[in-house]
């Protein structure tokens, strides 16, 4: 299965980065197909206008619906297709989680709509919901200038879960937030040299005693989770 990823943005250059590193490898071995589109290609005025002042007043600008609608027609099509997943990264979205990444990794087609300014005319999202499966997703309680960086983060979280993408799938199974794992934060990791700038690797990890090592790691995860993410221990 090849996943097709489309990105709609007024800064499509953000997605050139997908040609390098692991994601580039996924493109090379045909696991994913990436297409970035400039929303301004669907404007018709001399200034290639994509925004206008908010109805009802208020600060900032809102992205006009017309270019989005025409871009949807050209990129996705004019027939409804619930198998197409359209993602709007937005601070007002539902929290993006590893289980959402897991679900999206089985989808054949994902279209990222990257908002700028104060946001996108709400009718664009309402229209998309009549046509495709829409996800308004938040990465966290902070505001970015646009959805591009969030789209890249969601892309990485999803593509790395596509079967055949990661060399050693067993490492995925052990990760925090993986299905089946308790929701615990990762224990501290160490590698050689055993002594570095006067700091030594915890002895238990060098003992070769797998039972004690597992116990130490679990305890460290519990302590870290209790300290940093008490919300996960509910
Ligand atoms: C679609 O509408 C958007 C999208 C974004 C980009 O996404 C994020 O910032 C984000 C996604 N997860 N967490 C944060 C930002 C705004 C925005 C900008 C300024 C003031 N208010 C809202 C609007």
TrEMBL record:
Main location: cytoplasm
A cellular component term, taken from the record's GO annotations: cytosol
Keyword ATP-binding appears in the UniProt entry: no
Enzyme class, UniProt record, top EC level: transferase
Catalytic reaction(s) noted: guanosine(37) in tRNA + S-adenosyl-L-methionine = N(1)-methylguanosine(37) in tRNA + S-adenosyl-L-homocysteine + H(+)
Annotated positions binding S-adenosyl-L-methionine: 115, 139-144
Domain tRNA methyltransferase TRMD/TRM10-type positions: 3-233
Keyword entries, A-Z: Cytoplasm, Methyltransferase, S-adenosyl-L-methionine, Transferase, tRNA processing
Gene3D superfamilies with a match to the protein in the record: 3.40.1280.10, tRNA(m1g37)methyltransferase, domain 2
Quaternary structure annotation from Swiss-Prot or TrEMBL: Homodimer.
UniProt similarity note: Belongs to the RNA methyltransferase TrmD family.
PANTHER family, alphabetized: TRNA (GUANINE-N(1)-)-METHYLTRANSFERASE
Protein name from the UniProt record: tRNA (guanine-N(1)-)-methyltransferase
Source species: Cutibacterium avidum ATCC 25577
């Amino acid at each position: 299965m090849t996943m097709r990823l489309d990105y709609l943005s007024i800064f499509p250059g953000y997605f050139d980065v997908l040609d390098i590193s692991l994601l580039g490898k996924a493109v090379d071995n045909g696991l994913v197909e990436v297409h970035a589109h400039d929303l301004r290609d669907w404007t018709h005025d001399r200034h290639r206008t994509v925004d206008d002042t908010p109805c009802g007043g208020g600060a900032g600008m809102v992205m006009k619906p017309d270019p989005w609608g025409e871009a949807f027609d050209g990129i996705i099509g004019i027939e409804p297709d619930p198998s197409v997943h359209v993602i709007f990264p937005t601070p007002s979205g539902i929290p993006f989680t590893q289980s959402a990444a897991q679900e999206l990794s089985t989808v054949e087609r994902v279209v990222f709509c990257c908002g700028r300014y104060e946001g996108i005319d709400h009718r664009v999202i309402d229209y998309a919901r009549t046509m495709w499966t829409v996800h308004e997703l938040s990465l966290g309680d902070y505001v970015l200038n646009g959805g591009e960086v969030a789209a890249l983060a969601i892309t990485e979280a999803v593509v790395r879960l596509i079967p055949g993408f990661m060399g050693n799938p067993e490492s995925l199974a052990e990760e925090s937030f993986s299905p089946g794992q308790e929701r615990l934060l990762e224990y501290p990791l160490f590698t050689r040299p055993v002594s570095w700038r006067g700091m030594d690797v915890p002895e238990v990890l060098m003992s070769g005693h797998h039972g004690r090592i597992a116990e130490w790691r679990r305890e460290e995860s519990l302590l870290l989770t209790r300290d940093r993410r008490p919300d996960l221990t509910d």
